[in-house]
Amino acid sequence: xxxxxxxxxxxxxxxFSNRIEFEVADxxxxxxxxxxxxxxxxxxLWSATLEPHGDEAPxxxxxxxxxxxxxxxxxxxxxxxxxx
Length: 84
Description:
Elements: H1 19-31, H2 36-50, H3 62-70
């Protein structure tokens, strides 16, 4: 419990803000393996469509996307490898 008496629950998508950010990161980085330049271009286009509504794209640039991915914790699982 926290000092306020409320149990502190970790945000389920941390370090991402929500499921959409997580899935966009997974799609662009892992599944599509989109280039940094193309990620930047896509985020600019996405932001342009949302700007009139006072919203923004899930990431500002490829740097923002990569920083979020780098902030993922490993869950305490040690790295192991072996040769067959």
